[in-house]
Amino acid sequence: MKKKLNILAIIMVVIVLVVFITSLYISRNNKEATDIEDDKIRVVTSFYPTYILTTNLTDGISDIRVDSLTDLSAGCLHDYQLTTNDMRLLSNAHVFIINGGGMEEYLEEVVDSFPELEVIDLSKGIVFLESEVHEGGDNPHVWLDPELYMIQIENAREGLETFIRNKGNIKDNINNDGKDESGYNEYNKEIIDHLNANASAYLDDVAVLADDMNLMLNTVNDMVQHNNISNKVVVFHDSFAYLSTKAGLEVAYTVEVDEDHPLSAGEIAEIIDAIRDENISYLFTEEQYDDSISDRIKDETDAEVYIIDSAVTGDVAKDSYIKAMRRNIETLKKAFEG
Ligand SMILES: [Zn+2]
Predict the structure, then answer these.
(1) Fold match between 39-203 and 226-337?
(2) Ligand 1 ion: residues within 5 Å (CB)
(3) What angle do CA 88, 92, 98 make, to 5 degrees?
(4) CA distance readout (Å), 124 to 68, 98, 121, 178
């Protein structure tokens, strides 16, 4: 009995030691992580499009760290609820970059919880189309028009520069040393120059894309007006509205697809009837939506289904937005030029 107790005591001592050493190790690692982070300007972006835009501007700037609030495969998050992890990430951030236009429905909660957090709204100054899903609301999918995306790039550049000049980062006592009247010093000047160089390079690339996109949309517009083709389209998500408006297309029906409320058989029949009645030939859907509904519509009507890339998911490559929009130009070409 006594021997058993001794063994038990040894086991307990070992367990206590393991727990103690592990906790020491973890706290040391956490401390290291915090120390590294304290040197950086910590930027959080709301979702994939704002993340890709921001990482283009901060590319190669080791003093700025960018994290996405949501998973990059999450897509458009219209009814997103903040998680505990999101709140933790935001509590450590200096800057929060949002798309605006109501995309971040949780914004008020963030502002209330972190009044010190600098919020950069990328849609500042943009005139929104009205949402086709929420009556009276704004349609926040402005990034799908490259011209509006260029305004978003400039808003991000300006917002980040202003923040870096005025506030620096956590090491305020260092970063505010020797600032001139405009707020520049040796430390932030280098970061701001790098940021501005990145922004103008990205703007140049997107400007070429915007020209090509406008050319395509004007061609479609001409065809709709002169070649007697139907200008009515059915869409699955009102993200296509910015391009379809420029192309002179009329959205006859927006199919509201919501994972929590799948379309009923009656609703699908109603859409099919509308497509037949109005002789609609174009159905624009998106990759992340269930194919079965668009397949059924295609089978039962004369409409062709085209897939628009709304650039809300993808890889972290710097040119992923540009590539997605180039695919959309090709899709429009296929749809309207045959
Ligand atoms: Zn959306």
Answers:
(1) yes
(2) 76, 239
(3) 85
(4) 20, 10, 6, 32
The predicted model gives 165-192 an average pLDDT of 73
CA of 75 to the centre of ligand 1 (A): 8
CA 76 / ligand 1 centre spacing (Å): 4
- 39-203 maps to which CATH number? 3.40.50.1980
For the chain, what are the domain ranges? Answer: 1-38, 39-203, 226-337
- In the structure, what pLDDT confidence band is assigned to residue 30 with cuts at 50, 70 and 90? very low
Query: In the structure encoding, which two tokens stand for residue 191, read together?
Result: 């970061």
What separation in Å is there between the alpha carbon of 165 and the centre of ligand 1?
A: 34
Q: What is the architecture of the domain spanning 226-337?
A: 3-Layer(aba) Sandwich (3.40)
- Separation of CA 210 and ligand 1 centre (Å): 21
pLDDT tens digits, 73-105: 888 888 899 999 999 999 999 999 999 999 999
CB-based contacts of 207, cutoff 8 Å, min separation 6? 150
Measured between alpha carbons, how far is 312 from 287 in angstroms, rounded to an integer? Answer: 10
CA 172 to chain centroid, in Å, comes to 30
Region 274-290: what's the mean pLDDT?
84
For ligand 1, the distance from its centroid to the CA atom of residue 143, given in whole angstroms, is: 11
Two tokens, residue 139: 């349609």
C-alpha 161 to ligand 1 mean position (Å):
29
Average pLDDT of the chain is 86
CA of residue 244 to ligand 1 center, whole Å: 15
168: CA distance to ligand 1 center in Å? 34
What tokens appear for 248 in the block? 């002179």
pTM for this one?
A: 0.85
The three-point CA angle 31-27-93 to 5° equals 45
